[in-house]
Amino acid sequence: MGPLTGLKVVEVAGLAPAPFACMILADLGAEVLRIDRAAVGAAYVAPAGPLDRGRRTLGLDLKSPEGVEVLRSVTESADVFVEGFRPGVAERLGFGPEELLEQNPRLVYGRMTGWGQDGPLAPSAGHDINYIALSGALEPIGRAGERPHAPLNLLGDFAGGGMLLVVGILAALHERATSGRGEVVDAAMADGASLLMTFIHGMRAAGMWDGERGTNFLDGGAPFYDTYECADGRYVAVGCVEPPFYQRFLKVLGVDEESEGLDFQLDPRGWERTRTVVAARFKERSRDQWAKDFEGTDACVTPVLSPWEAHEHVHHRERRSFVEVDGLVQPAPAPRFSRSAVAEPGPIDAGGRDPLRTLLDWGIPESQANTWVADRVR
C-alpha cells in the first residue's frame, strides 16, 4: 500500500540519516531490503527502533566476495540503492555506483554523507553538529550572550540529510521515467543544512536579521516568538507574529499595553519590557491552564509538549499522527494522500527474519538461494 508500491530499495545498514530516508520510503509503500553487516567487527549500528520499521533484512559479510555477490545479485532487480559510507568505501568493497549501474542501468544510487562526495572535507569524519556548524545553521541558534546551542541532531542528520536524500531519490526516479536511466544522488548533510538556511539569508538581505544570536525576529529575541515558563515549571510556546494575533494574545493574557507602558510590538527597543510583563503573567497559571485559555483564539499559543506526551494531545489523536509498532508509540507515516492509502508500518522483519523467503521474493533462483542461506547469508 502507498504511492511508492512496487518500488524496490536495497539499503546498506547505517546510522541516522540514511535509515531515516529508507524508513520514509518504506512508510510510503516501497519494499525495502536492508543489508546488515554481519562481519565480526562491523561498524556500529544503533539499537533497534522506529527507524528500522517496515523492512526485511539480510545479514551479509560485505568484506567478503561472497557477501558482495549476494548484495549485487539482489540489487539487479532494485530501483534504488542506498549507502552511507565515506566516499570511496563502497567502491573498495566492490559495490560502488560504477559496478551497480553497469549491471542495472536503471538503478538510482543514493549516497548519504556529511560533506559530500568531493571537496577537501569529503574524506573527513564528522557528525550533525559539525555539518550544521560549517553551514551557518548552528551559529544563530541560542540565547543572546550565550554559546550556540545544538538543536538535537535534527537539522543535519534528518532535515538536511535523510529528507534531502528522499527528495533526491524521488527526483532521480522522476527523471528516469523519461530517460530510462538511473543516476547517482550525492546527498550531503552540509549541503542540506545550508539549504535549510535559505529563508534566513533572505531575512538578512531584507534587513530583518541584523543582530547577534538571540536578538532577532525568530530566534527568541522577540517576546512574541519565544517560550515562557508557567506556574508548574512547564512551558508554552508563543508565535503571535502578526499584529491581529498579537492583540488577541495580549487580550487572553490580560495585558493592557497602555497601562503596562508597552511599546509598539515590532520595536525592538521595547522587547525586554514586554518580555518581563508577559513572563510574569505566564507564571500565574499552569501550562495546561494557559493552553485551555488560549484554545480557539488564534493567538498562536501552544503547550510545549515532551516527545513522550505529544501523542496524547487531542489533535494528534484525531489525526492519528502517532501509531504503535511492536509496542512502541512513534510518529505515523507522513505526508497523507487523497487516493493512495498508506498502511500502518510494521516492525522490522515482521514475523522474523527469513533469508530464504526474502531471497526468493527478490528474484534469486531457489537452488542459488538455498546455497547462499547455507553458507553466506544470516
Provide an overview of this structure.
With 378 residues, this protein is α/β, with parallel strands linked by helices. The chain is 37% helix and 14% strand. It has 15 helices and eleven strands. It has helices at 17-27, 65-75, 89-93, 97-103, 128-134, 154-179, 189-196, 198-205, 243-253, 257-260, 271-282, 287-294, 314-319, 355-361, 366-375; strands at 8-12, 31-37, 55-60, 80-83, 108-113, 184-188, 225-229, 235-239, 301-303, 322-325, 328-331. The strands form three sheets. A six-stranded parallel β-sheet has the order 3-2-1-4-5-6, with helices on both faces. A three-stranded antiparallel β-sheet has the order 7-8-9, covered by helices on one side. It is elongated and about 85 Å long. It starts with 7 loop residues before the first strand and ends with a helix.
Number of E-state strands: 11
* N-to-C CA distance: 28 Å
Question: What is the overall shape?
Answer: elongated
The largest β sheet comes out as: 6 strands, parallel
Summary keywords:
6-stranded parallel β-sheet; single chain; 15 helices; 378 residues; alpha/beta; 3-stranded antiparallel β-sheet
Secondary structure layout:
Elements: E1 8-12, H1 17-27, E2 31-37, E3 55-60, H2 65-75, E4 80-83, H3 89-93, H4 97-103, E5 108-113, H5 128-134, H6 154-179, E6 184-188, H7 189-196, H8 198-205, E7 225-229, E8 235-239, H9 243-253, H10 257-260, H11 271-282, H12 287-294, E9 301-303, H13 314-319, E10 322-325, E11 328-331, H14 355-361, H15 366-375
Parallel strand pairs: 1-2, 1-4, 2-3, 4-5, 5-6
Antiparallel strand pairs: 7-8, 8-9, 10-11
Helix pairs in contact: 1-6, 5-6, 5-7, 6-7, 14-15
